[in-house]
Each structure stands twice: as structure tokens, then as C-alpha cells.
Amino acid sequence: MADGPLIVQSDRTVLLEVAHPDAESARHELAIFAELERAPEHIHTYRITRLGLWNARAAGHDADDMLATLDRWSRFPVPPSVSIDIAETVGRYGRLVIERTPVAEDGSGGELILRSTDAAVLAEVSKNKRIQPLLIGRPSPDAFVVDAWARGHIKQELLKIGWPAEDLAGYTPGTPHPIDLAEDGWTLRPYQRQAVDIFTDGGSGVVVLPCGAGKTLVGAGAMAETKTTTLILVTNTVSARQWRDELLKRTSLTPEEIGEYSGQTKEIKPVTIATYQILTAKRKGQYAHLALLDALDWGLIVYDEVHLLPAPVFKLTADLQARRRLGLTATLVREDGREGDVFSLIGPKRFDAPWKEIEAQGFISPAVCYEVRVDLPAGDRLEYAAAADDERYRLAATAPAKIGVVRRLVERHEGERILIIGQYLDQIDVLAEALNAPKITGQTPVDEREELYQAFRVGDISVLVVSKVANFSIDLPEASVAIQVSGSFGSRQEEAQRLGRLLRPKQSNHTASFYTLIARDTVDQDFAQNRQRFLAEQGYAYTILDAHSLAA
Q1: pLDDT band of 332, cuts 50, 70, 90
Q2: Please, where are the H alpha helices in 180-325?
Q3: Contact assessment for residue 141 and residue 118, using Cβ atoms and an 8 Å cutoff
Q4: DSSP 76
Q5: Does residue 551 have a pLDDT over 70?
């Protein structure tokens, strides 16, 4: 405790001294249960939240582990109020348990039960006006019967009042379907195998792995363990086809066993891959494809990029609590703040591997991150100053001064595969024309997108200009440079996806370079600070460059 890198404060914030020799070790242990709030150059601020503590508890870490981390790395004694608060908060997880009564030979039983050995806790929650209607009987002093439809709903409500229930009610096995990994010349990496084993034991929950670390293989491993009909929900059609290709390559599944359910194709097979978009599509005010959720007796539902799960899918997922659910993501951060719904309805975090740790093992590429600050010419600066607040970000993000900087960066990395990423279609058009490079936007037909991605993979194209459609689930392993010209108002989840495009291991052995172009002294710079929190969370330093220095 003599000179650690952490300072633990009584308001549940934890300060990390970035330059301390033990900062990286402390960060990795702290990130298990605390969330990074601010990340300027020298001191990073973490906050210990209830949800963070409960996610850590569900992943197998107890209060003693968390307090040991703080004691080991703290410069000063941990405030007693924080120690007591952590112990008591962690102790709330699992005091309430959801179980299912055994089914008798005559078919009776099988009721959902909310049970607790703490009579006071049970009395408190049963009196809650939002929970009371969900309880339909009391078979014993330590238990209530939960209405059959309300398994997901009661977990949401219990979390809101600070009593997260551990769901031990079990899962329907679904229709059995033989699925095996085809480990011909390859095997699951140790962390992938560990993630599959922990998920299989827990039954439902979220696995957090960096982009490029093989989340799809974790999904395939879970399918091989459960050997049941599986519904896989993905962000878009390109992602659906990449999942299909990977499953055909890595498992015993054949093309006849895998169906695509999207805007273009409506197939229902033992393994069906559907897009979030089709699931939330409405016709005459009603969800048009809800029947997909009951089309087969699914034994496993996989949610790819679970941090992007559209809000309506939470409501649909509340009715799917009897099915095993696996969420895959690079970050649990949701820009809409609905992390609690992921915890309640998909499941708690079961496994989390730090990016830098997997990089150190050689499974993802090392990366260096740069923020390039660009000065606006006097005329553009005046236009920005006179603009309405809601126009300023677009003016700063699409500043023409960024075009020349992009050119210089492309020249600097000649011979490498370069992705140039923008938010605005007119800016993407200008960039593609200025660089004489192909572009991919949401308007590009799926077949054409796949052709361009493939040309980029094999090296026929070295520069590709893309919109945010390339944020998600696109496999471009040889991309070693990303130049982010504009983004979504400082979205941390977007930063995760864009950095992730570069982290897949490369045959070229290039160190990845991730550039973000920022208009100096504008809201563009303010929003960048939020995105940088994500880089700092994962242990990546970023260097600030002046655009003028690139010309030197």
C-alpha cells in the first residue's frame, strides 16, 4: 500500500495515476468491477457502480477479490465506508433466487418460484407495486410463485430496486440438433474455450471479447456444447453471411442446415441467422416477423454485438427467458444507458478478457492510436462560430480542411491497407473522389459490398472509404490503418468497433495505426474526449498530433 497507483475515494470514485509503473496491472484488475469515467493524460477516474459489482459477482469474482484489488494497489487506506458498501452491494446479488419446481409425472409443477432465505428482503420486494402483480401465490414462507410469463419482467423490476435475482430456473433444451466443431488444423484458443465453458455452466449471459479475438468461434463453441436448434441475431446482412461462412468452415454444419432470415431471404433452418432490422420491422403498427421467435423450438439464441440490441428486442427477449441466451460484444457500454436490461434479460457478464492481455498473447495485433488536430481556415471558423448549436458538430466533423490531412496520411502509409471512415454521406463522396478510391455506404447493394470487401482483403484495393455500415462484424484482417474523419457524437461503442477493425492478426505483421481527425477548438474536440475513454479503458494510449507536423 506504500506507493500504489490508485487512490480510492469515499464517493466510490477511484483515481489511477497513468505514469505509475504498476498502472497497467492495477487497471486490468480494477476494470473487472469499475467503469472508466474520465481519461485525460495523467489521472484516470473510475467509478464503482452497483451494476459493475453485480456483473463482476456473476462472473465469479466475490467482494473479497474486489477489496483485495483495491487494498493491493491503493496508495492510501481504502475508506471503510467504501469497503462496507462494496461488501454489502455484492452481497445483494443472489439473495433472491428464481427457481422452477420439479415437473411431476402427471405434468403438474414446473412453476416459477422467487425464493429467499432472507424474510425481510422477500417482504420488501413483494410489497413493491410493480412486482406485486407478478406474484400469484405463496407456497411457503420463503417463496412466491411468479406468473409464468413474467420471468424476464420480474428480473428487470428487481434490478431497478437494487435486488438482482440469480436466475436458476433452467432452460428448455430445444430441439436436439447435432453440431460439432470441425477442429481440422486449429483449436479454440484458451480464452475462447474458457468463455464457452463458463457460459455453458451459467446457461445465459454475455461474453466480452475484443473485435478480432474470435467472438464468432465462441458462439460456434457454445452451439457445439448445446447441440440444439439455434437462432443467431446479427446487425446486418453482410454480418449474417460472414457468420454463415464461418460456421460452414468451423463446424460440422452443412449449407442445408443454415438459413438466412433477412430483408432479402426468409429461410428457417435448424440454425437460422436473422438481422435485428427484420425482427423489429413493423407492418400496420405490428411486428411483422415475431413468428420467427417461435418458428422452431430454439434451444439457444445468440445475440451478436449485444450492445447494439435495438430497444424493441429487449421487450421481445423478456418472453424468451426459458431459452439459453448468449450475448457477444466488444464493450458492455450502451449509449442509451440500458446496460441494466442486458444484465436482466440477456444475462450478466460471464467472461471478459482485456484487449491488451489478448494482444500480449499474440492473438490480436498491437495498435497505436493518434488524435490529429486540424485547424479550420478563418472563413470556416467564422461559419462554425455563427452556426446554430445543432449544426456545429456537422460543420466541424465535415470540415474540408480534413481532406488534405487524409491525403497525407494515405501517402505516409503507402503499401498498407487503409480504411477511411466517415459518418456523413456527402463527406464520403468527397473523400472517395479526392482519393480516387471506392466507397461503401448503406446504399451500396450487399453483393457489391461483399465484392469490394473481398477485393480489399486480397489486396486488389488498398484504400476503401466506408460509412458506419463497416462498424459492425466486418472481417477485414489485413486492414492496418484506419482514419476516422467523423463519427457519432463521441460514441464509445463506435470507437470499439472501429478500432476493432484493425486488431485482427495480420500476415503482414504491421502494427495497426488508428487516426482520428479532430477540428481544433470545436465540439468535435469535446466529443473526442468521450471516445478516448474507451481507448483508455482498454489500456491504449493515444498521441495527439498537429496536422501541420504531418507535412514535415
Answers
A1: confident
A2: 190-202, 215-226, 237-250, 276-279, 311-317
A3: no
A4: S
A5: no
**Rounded distance between C-alpha atoms, residue 435 and residue 452, angstroms:** 16
What stretches of 112-257 adopt beta strand conformation (E)?
112-115, 135-140, 143-146, 165-167, 204-208, 230-234
Distance CA(404)–CA(452), nearest Å, equals: 25
Q: Parallel, antiparallel, or unpaired: how do β-strands 34-38 and 96-100 relate?
A: unpaired
Q: Cα separation of 42 and 65, whole Å?
A: 27
Task: Give the single-character DSSP code of 257.
Answer: G
Q: Of 256-260, 326-330, 505-509, which range is least confident?
A: 505-509
Please, are residues 2 and 70 in contact by the beta-carbon 8 Å criterion?
no
Q: Is 24 left (phi over 0), alpha (psi -120 to 50) or beta?
A: alpha
Amino acid of residue 69: T
Residue in 231, 98, 208 with CA at minimum distance from that of residue 159: 98
Is the overall model pTM greater than 0.85, yes or no? no
Per-residue CA distances from 138 to 113, 157, 179 (Å): 9, 19, 42
**How many CB atoms lie under 10 A from the CB of residue 147?**
15
Paired sense of beta strands 135-140 and 143-146, if any: antiparallel
- The answer to whether 347 and 202 have CB atoms below 8 angstroms apart is yes
Burial class for 389, CB neighbours closer than 10 Å (0-12, 13-18, 19+): exposed
List pLDDT tens digits, range 77-100.
Answer: 999 999 999 999 999 998 999 999
pLDDT attached to residue 473: 47
List pLDDT tens digits, range 414-457. 988 898 988 888 999 999 999 999 998 888 888 888 899 889 88
End-to-end CA gap in the chain: 46
